[in-house]
Structure formats: C-alpha cells, structure tokens
From TrEMBL:
PPR repeats, residue ranges: 185-219, 255-285, 287-321
GO biological process terms, semicolon-separated: chloroplast RNA processing
Organism per entry: Urochloa decumbens
Domain of life according to the entry: Eukaryota
Key word Transit peptide present: yes
Native organism taxonomy: Eukaryota, Viridiplantae, Streptophyta, Embryophyta, Tracheophyta
Protein name: DYW domain-containing protein
Length: 594
C-alpha cells in the first residue's frame, strides 16, 4: 500500500512489521538488549521514530522486564508526544509506579497526555501506596469515582491496598466489603489480609481468612504468609501448626516465602526447635531470608551464641548477609552482653560486606552498650554517630538509664524525646521508672500529673495465652474472666508455694509511692501471672505454657516465673516487648541478663 506521496504507509512498512513480530516473539523471555537492537533496526529501516505502533510494542516489551528501564521508557514515550495513545501512557505509568521513582507516575498523569481509562488508575494507586501518600491517593480515588470507574474490581483492589498501606485499615475494609463476593479474586483477599497484617491486626486477619475459607476460595502463598504472620503476632502456636499441616496438604509448603514465614512463626512462638527443624527440611529452598529468619529467631529467643554460630555457618557457605541479617547478629550480641563481639561484627559488616550502617544498626550498638551498663559510652556513641539519632535511639538510651539509674543522662535523653516524639506514653513511663528507682517520688507525681493534663495514657500490661486452639487475654488486676474466682484462688496457692520456697517480693519493681503490702498485691496481679495461673488450671501437667506480653517483664515477675517453672515442673515461654524468656527448672534462657 502506498501513501499519497507514493511511499509505504507506516503500518505496512516491512521493517516495522518485522520488528513488531520479533518484539512479540521475545515477550516470553524479554531482554533489554534485544529491545534496543530491534528498536535500532526499525529506525535504520526507515520507520519514523515517532511511530505509535513501534512505541506501543517497544514499551510493552520493556514493561515485561524484571527491572524495566524507566528512563528509556520515558524517552520512547516522548517520541510520540504530544499525542500518545492511552495504552502507551498507561504502560509507562505502570513502569514508573513500580520503579524507585513512583512519583513520576503521578507527574505523568497530571500532564493529561491521554484520556484515562480502566487501566490508568491501578498503577497510580500503587504509586500512592508506595509513597504512603494518602492525600494523593484520596485525590485519585475521587477522580476514579467521578469517571465512573470505582466499581471495577481491580480498581477496588488497588484502593484496598492503598488504604491498608497508609494505615487506614478500616477504610480498606469498607472498600473490600463493597466488592461483591462473586467478584473477589486472590488480589482482593490478599490485599485485605495484608492490610490487616501490616497494621498489627492479627485477629482481623484470621477472621477474613475464615470468611475466605467459608466461601471455598483457594488461598495462595501470599494468603498464607499473612495468616502465618497473624499466628506469630498473637503467639498462636497450635493454630500455626494446623495451618502448617494445611499448607502441606495443598502443596504450598515448598513455597520459599511460605517457608520463611513458617520459620518466623515457630521462632516468634518460642518453638525454636521447630523453627530449626523446618529450616533444615527446606534444604535447597533455603534463601538468605531463611537464614536471616532463623538467626533473628534464635537471637530474640535468648540463644545469642547459637545465632552467632549459625551466622558463621552461613558465611562458610559463602552466602552474603543482608542489612537485616546484621541487625539479627548485633541483636544477639546485645542480648548476650557480648560488647566486643558486637563491635567486631559491626566493623566487619562495613568492611567485608560493604553494608552502610543504617539507624537500626546504630541503635543496636547503643542498646549493646546500654544493656552492658556502659551508659556514658552509649551517650557518646549517639552524639558522634554519622546519622541523626531518631526517637527510637534516644528511647533506647532512656531505657538503659532507667535500668542503671543514670538520672542526668536520662533527663538529657528525655529532653530530646520531647522534641522528636512528644506525647509518647512509653517515654513518660521510662522517665517515671527512673525517678522512682532513685527515690524521687515528687518528680514521679509531677510527671504523672503532666501525663493526665496532656491526655497521655499509659498502655496497660496485657498478656495472651493460647489453650485448646483459643487465645485468652489478661490485663493487670483483671476480674472480667468468667473463671476469675478460680484464677485468683490459683494465684493465692502459687503465692503460698512461692513463700515456702523462700521468695520475697521485689517491691522496688512497683513504681508507686504506696505501702509495701499494696505493692506485694500489685505484683501478684500482673497480667502474665494471671495468664500463667489460668494455664496451670486448664492445661495438662507437663504441658509448656506460652505467654505473649506487650510490655517488658519486670524483675520480680522474672524471679517468680523461674520459681513457678521449678515448683510446677513446667516449661514457661514468655515473649515480652523485646525478647523471649524460656523458663525451665528454675532458670531462664536469658541467664538473668535482659
């Protein structure tokens, strides 16, 4: 076919037809080098650089790459400006949304180079989610509704993901509920599950999963990672084991992401032997993430030396640790009091593996020094660190000051926290603990009045215990449980047996200016003791008891649980805010260093 000037029309140009055919052929195994060669061949063959068909197929090929080249894709698009077709523009928006520069997707859309269609909005919402830009996301949501596209399932899936990523899990659930049951697909369910999991709502994850199973919707690997994460969060080992059996039944246990989540589950439920056993069963499926999961799991369970030994094995296998691996290694050193080893690994991380220390690594070093009683050195380390210390770093120092009664440095840390993160209830509690520990009760009262005036509420101690596939929650002094009368009778029996063992309450752990007898009563009703009393009543002799607590275990409860493990011949595993304690036969895995 000839055009008016006697030449070939571009769509029938043999070089164009040939290159388009080859670009399609290479889609099964796309290659940037091949795309550039075919692009060059088309141009040498006389195809105009601005030909929309060439741009369309070239961009489609680039989008299929594992790491699409954003700059090249934008250059191809600009060749067909000012009138790119919606397909080409959407393709570049999709590439930008998943690139390290997701804001470019929003910038391209703002230029209105082509009218938006059904495929425009999912990548734009993905870009907003990656940027955690709720404001942009809500603006795009409004535009979607205005254009009559808000009912499309893939748009709603993207909205669920956006709101979940931005922490608005209730908004995410509201959009999810608007999707008709028959239209929900794996992305719908997984976006909702992940939204709840990422926002620390494990019970809601399990509720949505039950809804999913009730309608016979087949889960995939992403589904099960969210479910296992939820089980780990609440310490539901029995439920996690049932999920593991189900995974084996449906053939997902070999999925590497699922495998890593199983290691994490067993480690976070304090079942280190199960975590190690499954890690070994993974065999060739082990990845650096698998090694990291087990190293971190061993470290937080108080088996720091085993964690460091495993890291040595990993190095001998020539596996390269990640930033997270090194956080686990430094954490192991911190919780075992291995100060010199910690600094040795920190130096090796930089020199041998080329990992630039992040604030998490620097925070581990502050924790390492602070736990070891080197509080002045920890302060100097913060002052001279290469990154600006954040609130977590200063909070770590304040915790060390409270532990070691370093008042002046503690007040310095508090001053920085007031600037960086005002109103954080945990900081008030730490400073109050420090004042009380050095006997400055007047300052304690002033601080608590300030908390009340500013509306700052202290998080109450809560403990979870799993029994017979159910998880029970207890709060300090809680009498809401239907069997509270029996629980408090059991507490009285425990108290009597403890006294016969020579136990004397450490009332210094009750940081209030009240009578000694009241302090003893307050200690006896800590949430973990209620949970243990309930577990002793309701479980068979010899059965391990697993507790998850939202706050750090106090020194008195630590002593008491050691004695209970001996008196009642029970292994008791307590996961508190920062680590695990494995109590057995009167001793603890932390060796009283925590």
């Amino acid at each position: 076919m000839l055009d008016a000037a006697g030449g070939r029309t571009p769509s029938t140009h043999p070089a164009l037809r040939h290159c388009v055919a080859l670009l399609r052929l290479h889609l099964a195994s796309p290659s940037l080098a091949a795309a550039k060669q075919l692009h060059a061949r088309a141009l040498r063959g006389g195809v105009p650089p601005s030909h929309p068909l060439l741009a369309k197929h070239l961009l489609f090929h680039l989008a299929a790459l594992r790491a699409p080249p954003l700059r090249y894709a934008v250059a191809v698009l600009t060749r067909v400006l000012p009138d790119p077709d919606p397909f080409s523009l959407n393709t570049v928006i999709r590439i930008a949304a998943s690139s390290p520069r997701p804001r470019l997707a929003l910038a391209l859309h703002a230029r209105r180079l082509a009218p938006p269609d059904t495929h425009t909005y999912p990548p734009l919402l993905q870009a907003c989610a990656r940027l955690l830009s709720l404001r942009d996301g809500e603006r795009i949501h409004a535009e979607v509704a205005k254009n009559g596209l808000a009912t499309l399932v893939f748009v709603k899936n993207s909205l669920v993901h956006l709101y979940g990523a931005c922490g608005l899990f209730e908004s995410a659930h509201r959009v999810f509920d608007e999707i008709p049951l028959r239209e929900r697909n794996p992305v719908s369910w997984n976006s909702m599950l992940n939204g709840f999991a990422a926002n620390g709502r494990p019970n809601e994850v399990l509720t949505v999963f039950r809804e999913m199973m009730d309608v016979d919707f087949a889960p995939d690997g992403f589904t099960m990672v969210s479910v296992l994460t939820a089980c780990a969060e609440i310490g539901a080992l029995a439920l996690g084991r049932r999920v593991h059996a189900y995974l084996a039944k449906i053939g997902l246990v070999d999925n590497s992401h699922v495998g890593n989540a199983l290691i994490d589950l067993y480690a976070k439920c304090g079942s280190v032997d199960d975590a190690r056993r499954f890690f070994e069963e993974m065999g060739t499926e082990q990845t650096v993430v698998s090694w990291t999961s087990l190293i971190v799991g061993l470290a937080v369970n108080g088996f720091g030396k085993q964690a460091l030994e495993l890291f040595g094995v990993m190095e001998r296998k020539k596996l390269v640790p990640t930033e997270i691996t090194m956080v686990g290694v430094l954490y192991a050193c911190s919780h075992c009091g291995l100060v010199d080893d910690g600094f040795m690994y920190f130096d090796r991380m930089k020199e041998e593996y080329g990992i630039t220390p992040r604030i998490e690594h620097l925070g581990c070093m502050v924790d390492l020094l602070g736990r070891a009683g080197k509080v002045e050195e920890a302060y100097d380390y913060i002052v001279n660190m290469p990154l600006e210390p954040n609130a977590v770093v200063w909070r770590t120092l304040l915790g060390a000051c409270a532990m070691h009664k370093k008042l002046e440095l503690g007040e310095a840390a508090w001053a920085r926290l007031v600037e960086l993160d005002p109103g954080h209830s945990g900081d008030y509690v730490l400073l109050s603990n420090l004042y009380a520990a050095v006997g400055r009760w007047a300052d304690v009262h002033v601080l608590r009045k300030t908390m009340a005036k500013d509306g700052v509420r202290k998080n109450p101690g809560r403990s979870l215990v799993e029994l017979r596939n159910s998880v029970y929650e207890f709060v300090m002094g809680d009498r809401s449980h239907p069997e509270s009368e029996q629980i408090y009778k059991m507490l009285a029996e425990i108290a009597e047996r403890l006294r016969r063992e020579g136990y004397i309450p450490r009332t210094s752990n009750v940081l209030a200016d009240i009578e000694e007898e009241e302090k003893e009563t307050a200690l006896n009703y800590h949430s973990e003791r209620l949970a243990i009393a309930f577990a002793l009543l309701k479980s068979l002799p010899g059965t391990p008891i697993r507790i998850v607590k939202n706050l750090r275990v106090c020194g008195d409860c630590h002593t008491v649980i050691k004695l209970i493990s001996k008196i009642y011949d029970r292994e008791i595993i307590v996961r508190d805010r920062s680590r695990f304690h494995h109590f057995k036969s009167g001793s603890c895995s932390c060796k009283d260093y925590w």
